[in-house]
Amino acid sequence: MKKPNFLAAVLVAPLASAQIALAQTAPAPTASGHAEHLLADDHSWNGTLYDHYPTTRPMLSMIKLTIPAHSALPWHVHPYPNAGYVLEGTLTIEDRQSGKKRTFHQGEAFAESVNDVHRGVTGDGQTVLLLTYAGSPGKPTSVPLPGQQKEY
């Protein structure tokens, strides 16, 4: 009695393998993705207009930055337009010259300032940011003020 079952298994196994191979090689159907536009600005969070892009070859970069709770980043400037998205926690951005402050929460996007001295301050929990820069190859995306440590 065991021979017919064995024979059936020998005959059916290649057929099942062929069906799996066909399913794996079938082209994926075409579908549009769902876009949730998080940010579209021509100015930074503090109202400063972006005036130009670098004239050199562009380089996009993206950084996931984790900042401990109850801490402040060093004072710094960004020479290029950039945008941030709060993955976790809160971030209060402070503009040194004007004193303006604005707090961004998990799930919010923000347009960073260019050449304005600022820093980010976290709340009760760690803050995790996704930062995207439109810079130039070989140039820093964040520049600390003299005497300050690097932002990252």
Structure annotation, total helices: 1
Q: What would you say the CATH architecture of the domain at 59-144 is?
A: Sandwich
How big a fraction of the residues is strand? 25-35%
* Arrangement of strands in the largest sheet: 1-8-3-6
Give me the count of strands. Answer: 9
Give the CATH topology of the domain at 59-144: Jelly Rolls
How far apart lie the N and C ends? Answer: 71 Å
Report the uncertain regions: none
**Biggest sheet: strands, sense, closure?**
4 strands, antiparallel
Mean pLDDT metric:
88
Q: List the secondary-structure elements in sequence, H or E.
A: HEEEEEEEEE
Give the radius of gyration: 26 Å
Name the CATH superfamily assignment of the domain at 59-144.
Answer: Jelly Rolls
User: Helical content, roughly?
Assistant: 10-25%
Q: What oligomeric arrangement do these chains adopt?
A: single chain
| Gross geometry | globular
Structure classification: alpha+beta
CATH class of the domain at 59-144: Mainly Beta
InterPro entries: Cupin_2, RmlC-like_jellyroll, RmlC_Cupin_sf
Protein name: Cupin domain-containing protein
Domain Cupin type-2: 66-131
Signal peptide: 1-23
